[in-house]
Amino acid sequence: MPIFEVAGKQYEVDEDGFLENPEIWNQDVACDFASSEGVTELTESHWKVINYLRSYYLQFGIAPMIRKLCKETGFKLNEIYVMFPSGPAKGACKLAGLPKPTGCV
Amino acid sequence: MADNGKRKTKLLDQLESGPWPSFVTEIKKASESSPVCDDLLGQLELSYEEKQGHWKHGGIVGVLGYGGGVIGRYSDVGDRFPNVAHFHTIRVNQPSGWFYSSEAIRTLCDIWERHGSGLTNMHGSTGDIIFLGTKTSELEPIFKELTEAGFDLGGSGSCMRTPSCCLGPARCEWACYDTMKLCYDVTMAYQDEMHRPPFPYKFKLKAAGCPNDCVASIARADLSIIGTWKDDIRQDDAAVAEYAAQGLDIRKDVCDRCPTRCMDWDGQKLTIANRECVRCMHCINVMPKALRPGVEKGATILIGSKAPIVQGALLSSVLVPFVPAEELLETLQELIKRLWEFWDENGKNRERIGELIQRVGMAGFLDAIGLDPVPEMISAPRDNPYIFFQAETEEK
C-alpha cells in the first residue's frame, strides 16, 4: 500500500494517490492533499466544490456527474479546472476524500 | 531464461507462427533496447498461462489543465514485473487524414523513446496516435515536449473524442467535401469539450468523404458525416463502352449488384434511374473511369452508432439528409449545440446519445432538437399497425 507523506503525517492511498479509507477524511486532509494536485491555496470556492462532493458522496456513495457538480455549485467546468488544475475527477474528488471515481477510457 | 538472456515466452511465440505481422515479434525487437518491453512480454505470457488479464481496471492520471488524454494502467503483478508496474497510455491528436512528414514521426518517436516504452500504436481506433506504456512521473515532461513540437493530447473519458476523417480530397477523387478541413475545424472549435470531459459519456465524430465511408463512421461515430451528392451520377458513355470492350460484364457485375436495381445495360448504353439511386457507390467503384459522383456535393449527417457496452451495437441513422459542402461546418455547429444540450439534460451516466434516442424515441428526440421528421430518416415504411395518430396531426 503506497503511503502519502506530508507535514509529518502519513496517509494510506491507492496507486493514484486517492485516500484508501474515505472515512478518515476531515478538512485537514483536504489541506494536506492540496499541494499534490497543484492547488496552492484552498479558497471559499474550493470548499464549496469539496463540500458538495463530500455531501453527495456521503448521501449516494458515488461521485456526482460533472453536469450536476457544475449546476449545483454554480461553477462552469473551466472554472473548476482553474481551481483544480488536475480536474474535478482527479483533483477535486481526491481533496474531498472520495475513493477513485470509476472512470472509463 | 532462454539462452539469449531473454525470458521464455512459449505461448506468445505461437503468435509469431502465422503468416501475418505479429505484435509479439515487434515487442521482442523493441525489448533489445527497452527493459519495459521485456517485462511486458513476461506479464503477457503469464496472462496466457493463467488465462487471466493482469492490468488493473482504470487508473486516474493526467496532466494539469486537462481531464483526458492519458489512460492510467497499473499491473497487479508489479512486484514480478516492476518495469510495467505503471504502464499508462497516452493519446496524441493525429493530423487530419494521418499525413506526416518523416521528421514529424521521428520527433514523436524520439520523445516517446526518451520518456516511455517506445511502443506505439499507429493508430488507435479513435484515430489518435497511441503511446503505450509510461510512468506517472513522465507525463508532464512528455506533454511539455509534445506541445513544444506542435502536438496536443487527444480525448479520453466522457468527452468529445478526437475527431477523425478519411484522407478525403488529398488523395481521393470521390470526396464530396473537404474532410480534412472539416476535421481540423471541428477539432479546433471543440478544444474545451475534448480536453475537459463534460458529458454523460463519450461522443465521437468521424467525417467520411463519400458513401464508401473508409473511416467506418456509420458504425463507430455518435455523429457520422458522410459525403454524398444530390444530382445525377456523372456518366461517360465512351468509358462505359471501353469497360464492356475490356470484358467487364456490366449486367452481372454492375446492374445486378445495384441494391435498388436502378441501372440498366442493353449491351450498348447504360441507363441510370437516378431517382432510385441510394448512393451505395458500387457502380462507381467498379467503373471509376466511367462513373463519378454528381456535381452538387455535400454530406449526410447521421447519428447514434456505438459498439456494445451498456446496450448492443448500433449503426448511425440519418438525421440531416443533405447539407451542401459549403454550409457543413456551420450546420454541424448548430446541430451539435442542440444535441449536447438535449443529451446533457436527459442522458444518464454512461448513456451514449444513440441509446438515449432509443430510450426517449426518435419523435421525442427530433422534437427536442427542433428538427422535422423527413422520409430519409427511415429505411422502410412502417409495418407496425399499432401506431395511433394524435388529434392535432389528423387535423393537419
Q: Describe it for me?
A:
The complex is a heterodimer of chains A (105) and B (396). The radius of gyration of chain A is 13 Å and the shape is globular. Chain A has a two-stranded antiparallel sheet. Chain A has 5 helices and 2 strands; from the N terminus they run E-E-H-H-H-H-H. Chain A has helices at 27-34, 44-60, 66-73, 77-83, 87-95; strands at 3-6, 9-12. Chain A has 105 residues and is mainly α. Chain A has a single domain (3-95), classed as Orthogonal Bundle (Arc Repressor Mutant, subunit A). Chain B is of the alpha+beta class and 396 residues long. Chain B is 33% helix and 13% strand. Chain B is built from 15 helices and 13 strands. In chain B, the strands form 4 sheets. Chain B has a 5-stranded mixed β-sheet with strand order 5-6-7-12-13. Chain B has a 4-stranded antiparallel β-sheet with strand order 1-2-4-3, covered by helices on one side. In chain B, strands 8-11 form a two-stranded antiparallel ribbon. The mean pLDDT of chain B is 94. The interface between A and B is medium-sized, with 22 and 29 residues.
List keywords for this structure.
A: about 100 residues, mainly alpha, Arc Repressor Mutant, subunit A, two-stranded antiparallel sheet, about 10% strand, B: about 400 residues, alpha+beta, four-stranded antiparallel β-sheet
Topology of this structure?
The complex is a heterodimer of chains A (105) and B (396).
Chain A: E1 3-6, E2 9-12, H1 27-34, H2 44-60, H3 66-73, H4 77-83, H5 87-95
Antiparallel strand pairs in A: 1-2
Chain B: H1 10-14, H2 23-31, H3 35-50, E1 70-71, E2 89-92, H4 102-115, E3 119-122, E4 129-132, H5 139-148, E5 164-165, H6 179-189, H7 191-195, E6 205-208, H8 217-220, E7 223-229, E8 234-235, H9 237-245, H10 250-253, E9 263-265, E10 270-272, H11 282-286, E11 291-292, E12 297-303, E13 317-324, H12 328-346, H13 353-360, H14 362-369, H15 391-395
Helix pairs in contact in B: 2-3, 4-5
Helix fraction bin of chain A: 40-55%
Oligomer: heterodimer
Low-confidence stretches of chain B: none
Q: SSE string of chain B, helix = H, strand = E?
A: HHHEEHEEHEHHEHEEHHEEHEEEHHHH
What is the correct CATH architecture of chain A? Orthogonal Bundle
For the sheet with most strands of chain A, the description reads: 2 strands, antiparallel
| Largest protein interface, residues of each chain | A-B, 22 and 29 residues
SSE order of chain A, one letter for each helix or strand: EEHHHHH
If you consult CATH, what is the topology of chain A? Arc Repressor Mutant, subunit A
Backbone CA Rg of chain B: 25 Å
Strand content of chain B: 5-15%
CATH classification class of chain A: Mainly Alpha
Q: How many β strands of chain B by DSSP?
A: 13
- Biggest β-sheet of chain B: count, sense, barrel? 5 strands, mixed
